[in-house]
Amino acid sequence: MNLNKKVFIGFLLFIIIPLFVLGSAVYTVSQQLIEKKYGDLTEVTLQAISRNIYYMFKEANYFSDFWMVKDSIQGIYRTIDATKPNADPLSSYDLNTFDTLLRGSILTYSPVQSVVIYNNSGRSFSAGRTSGSSIPWQTIQQSMAFQHIQELNGSPLWIGPSEFKEFGSGRGEFYQARMVKDFWTMDNLGYMLLKFKFNELDQIFKSFNTSEQSSKRYLLINKNGLIFYDNKQSLEGANVLQLTQGKLDLGFNNYSFKADFQNEKSLISLYHLNINGMGVQDWSVVSITSWKYVAGEIETIMKLVAGITFICLFFALVYNLVFVRRIIQLILRMLSSMKKVERGDLTTRLEVSGKDETTALARGFNSLVVRIEDLLEEVKRQQDRKNKAELMLLQAQIKPHFLFNTLESINVLAIQNQGKKVSQMVIRLGNLLRIGMENREEITLKQELEHLRSYLEIQEFRFEDQFQYTIEAPPELLHEDILKLTLQPLVENSLQHGFEPIDYMGLISVKVVDEGDRIGLYVTDNGVGISNDKLAKFHYKTELETPFHEILESNEERRGLGVSNVADRVRIQYGEHYGMFICSQEGQGTTMKVIIPKRKRDAC
Fold it and tell me: How far is Cα 213 from Cα 215, in angstroms, rounded to an integer?
């Protein structure tokens, strides 16, 4: 990255971004503070509204409780019960008497619009301020509210507009349903349904709406989000959960949050009435206030400050691009030749002209480049010789180690007079030596697997009926190059150290996996495994600081020589991003993975 980009990025990181983050943080904190403060204020308002609603229902309950136990009202139930089922239910005298009683008692309370009395067999009598049919007894029984009425056992149940489809949905019309008990015996006389028209709700919410009427809305909802009452009258019967797009959680007691309401950013506050004892089942009050009103002039000021800040940043950016960039371009021209050298172009030379200090600097730079070029060539030659010598040494360590074990197996077969098996093993050994004696360090993966298969066939003579093996490799990877004698030492380690102590059938799995631009070679056995103490000694470093055989204990050096040589050879040949990994657990077996790059040999 050149100096020009660095200065520009520094300008972004240390000036523009901090100012942007600071402004965003101040704006966010101010918004949260406004939201919290106004939310707290709204909660106080909703508490006051809740108290007024509580007193409204308390007064209505008190009035219905008072008349429900009167002899005149309870006498109506007894008279209805005494009427024969097949006869005329009520005489004209009874009807007039009951109507007079109800109008002189329950209907004297102005919010009560109508009253319906049901006995237990479904006979009913109704009276009201206006003419209209009462709700049939069968409809009451089939309503979902009927079960709640029975569970309350005489306590009132309040039903809001549209809460149950069997009841009315007029604005401000609430129903109180209850079971009526005999005052003396506490027997169930029947049921009473009162229809209320609470105009007082408008007065309650209006008293808290003053100058905010155009920006604030109050809703009275049930536990399912159904809107009973809207002070603006347009949302009654809708569901507030849909209007808030599911962001309102009625499970919380009292809280405020910002959300879009009818395509306008608003502050929404929820407050539970907590008057279930009055027969009101989990109703809540919701306040919705336009965020423009909540933020008020503060948001306008914040936007103005943000605009001024952006203008200042714009002029600062122009200054950086026009003036600072010109100075940087001068420096970049002086350093362009040095950049070429950094990219590896050692033929770069500075033009020498003039007699000032820049001339001496140019001559010194040219001399330095020449000297660096000579030193790099010498270091490269020495490093190539060193790597080649190390590879030859490591490979030389593997060959006698393998030959020793193979010849030992042939010797055992010769002692046992198994000439045919000795002949087969010698043939396979010749195949192995033929590949091992090739001058190339790398062979194809196909040749390596053939070499491994010959080795395993030799070992089958030695460990007869003691192990089985599988070799899997994708055909498209068989022509990839690999260091020869990579897999055989790993398999040999499984046979010599993993299977010798076991008394069950050993299994060896050799699998080649395509891993993108790399190849994974997996050698897995079900032998005795490696202890955690020994595994802890294998540190997989990115540099060849400690070969594997140097971290083994003295009595284990010979046993781990083949594995350590494979690990060191792979890392020397392919670099620090490749090598070998071991995963093992005592009694469960061992998996060794070798990672090599894809280096396909050109087809002959």
Answer: 6
